[in-house]
Amino acid sequence: KIKMIKRFLLISITYLAIQINAQDNKLNWYDDVSKAIPVSIQENKPLLLFFTGSDWCGWCIRLDKAVFQTDEFKKWAKDNVILLELDFPRRKKLDPTLEATNNELQNIFQVRGFPTVWLFSVTKTEEGKFSINANLSNPFQKMGYMGSAKDFISKAEYILEKMNEVY
Fold it and tell me: DSSP character for 93?
């Protein structure tokens, strides 16, 4: 009986450790820009916008698996950016307000294809409005598909470095 209790406790502790590790390793992707911006300002981290067609875009799905699901990216993202996914699904229905906001952001950032990733920082003006610190005519802040977390992070670091030079 004691052996069974010890075995049960060992299994329980192992399960809890796996669950805690899984939670620590989960990224927090926002899907609403109005929720992501205040966090970006509060934590003084730039936003990483991921324009995706999550249920139809093959390259978006590949980018998610090859980069965003890796431990390397998860660690880097937690330390460096606030993640915002702007989804344009075909089969799944979005809330109409969220869909309209995503469409507006797609127009602002001139997204013509998926996946597209933008990196930029946001500040709050004296009037209480939000200001995007990105020169949209300069494409160094925009990224697309990359096949590895290492390449993606390297490019993102370059962009963040350039942003810091400008701002």
Answer: P
What's residue 22's pLDDT? 46
Q: How far is CA 26 from the centre of its chain?
A: 11
- Report the DSSP beta bridge partners of residue 47: 82, 120
Cα dihedral sign for 88, 92, 97, 98? negative
CA angle 116, 72, 159 (to 5 degrees): 45
The reported pTM is 0.79
pLDDT tens-place string over residues 110-155: 999 999 999 988 877 777 777 766 554 454 578 889 989 999 999 9
| Cα angle 97, 98, 99; round to 5 | 90
Strands 82-87 and 29-30 turn out to be parallel
Strand 130-133 and strand 29-30: pairing?
Answer: unpaired
C-alpha span between 52 and 49 (Å, rounded):
9
